[in-house]
Design goal:
Length: about 400
């Protein structure tokens, strides 16, 4: 018998900080679960950290070398024996609209691990993910579990400004990641979707530390304010430019790349206002998409911006990268954009969009072989197109 209705009532009635306890009690009653544990992905996407434990690596599990990590990476349930009594641990992805939050591990007694039970537990994991997203408005518990070290203040500000790190719709899939995850300051990404359009922006505030974070914060909120008023991306850029200039009189600026996707046709409008670059993988060909360079936001008073149009076809993959990616040099002085970026894009072509940014940034770290001098940001967008349309 499907116990989902009773479990759902128990979870929705739980306090925001008590969701795991509610799931644990409900699964014990419904399936005789011996243990239930929620692990959340950390900001660096390197480990899974148990909710309710003190921050630190001593209890964190590798995202790349553990059964839980394999379930997280594949986004499929994974099971393993849990002792001599025949109990089985089920590791179930906790994901919300493409955003990979973590893993729910449920230990069931011998003989209880049927295919139907696993499907029902997967539904519970989905339910828990949605409830966590809502609960984070009212508790720091889940934010705390996502960190294995203290964030800098600038990084705290940036992570609070960001949307999810992944999103999936019928026409596209998005993944994004920032490094260094615990000490970012100026780089940022943002997106918003409706039934007809998707708007994506990448921003890079000038400077370092809190000043860069404050500058980016102003730019992102100015862009959002204009976007939410139904204004096109050229005027979004112009209004954000004016807001920054009014505040700083041209002494600082924000490099920005704005994209707006028409979901029915695959037409993309682009405003290139600074340093972020756009790359495209089409088939097995990787190339930079050359855009008309325009002034960064906030540099001059009343700057005007123009939209350049691109056409996507189903199967295209776009990468938006900051200067911390393409300007990185090897110990021999070779720029990553010259030798490494295209190779990495090809090597990761079979990965889903949510996994690509982390893979690129790991490859970048190996190429650099030193601590980063700047933020590094990667946004990956896979274009599927709308069924029955040309785009």
């Amino acid at each position: 018998m499907n116990a989902r209705p009773e479990i759902e009532r128990a979870v929705r009635a739980a306090a925001p900080y008590a969701l795991v306890e509610a799931v644990r009690g409900a699964l014990a009653a419904a399936y005789d679960a011996r243990s239930v544990e929620l692990l959340l992905a950390d900001y660096g996407m390197t480990v899974l950290n148990p909710v309710g434990s003190a921050p630190g690596r001593e209890r964190a599990l590798s995202m790349h070398n553990s059964p839980q990590g394999r379930a997280f990476g594949s986004q499929r349930p994974h099971e393993e024996p849990a002792g001599r009594d025949g109990a089985v641990d089920h590791h179930l992805p906790v994901t919300v609209r493409g955003e990979r939050l973590g893993i729910l591990t449920v230990r069931l007694p011998a003989g209880c691990s049927t295919a139907q039970t696993v499907n029902e537990l997967s539904d519970v994991a989905d339910l828990l993910g949605h409830e966590i997203v809502v609960a984070e408005r009212d508790t720091d518990l889940y934010q705390g579990a996502r960190r294995i070290a203290r964030l800098t203040l600038a990084a705290e500000m940036q992570w609070q400004l960001l949307p999810a790190r992944a999103f999936t719709a019928a026409e596209y899939a998005i993944g994004a990641q920032l490094e260094p995850a615990y000490a970012i300051h100026g780089d940022n990404f943002d997106w918003a979707a409706d039934g007809d359009q998707l708007t994506v922006s990448v921003t890079n505030g000038m400077g370092e530390g809190i000043q860069a974070s404050l500058l980016t914060n102003l730019a992102v909120n100015a862009l959002r304010n204009a976007r939410r008023a139904g204004i096109g991306i050229a005027d979004q850029a112009a209004l954000a430019d004016q807001a920054l200039y009014d505040q700083h009189r041209g002494s600082v600026h924000v490099s920005t790349l704005l994209l707006r996707f028409d979901l029915a046709t695959g037409t993309v409008g682009a405003v290139d206002a600074g340093s972020p670059q756009l790359w495209r993988l089409r088939g097995r060909t990787v190339a930079r998409v050359e855009l008309d360079a325009q002034l960064p936001l906030g540099m001059f008073e009343e700057s005007q911006y123009d939209v350049q149009c691109l056409q996507l076809i189903p199967g295209d993959r776009l990468l938006l990268v900051s200067d911390g990616v393409y300007d990185t040099v090897s110990p021999l002085g070779e720029a990553y954009v010259e030798r490494g970026l295209a190779r990495t894009v090809l090597a990761t072509r079979l990965l889903p969009a949510a996994s690509v940014p982390g893979a690129v940034l790991r490859e970048l770290a190996d190429y650099r072989d030193a601590d980063p001098l700047d933020d590094a940001l990667v946004v990956c967008i896979d274009w599927f197109g709308r069924q029955g349309s040309d785009g």
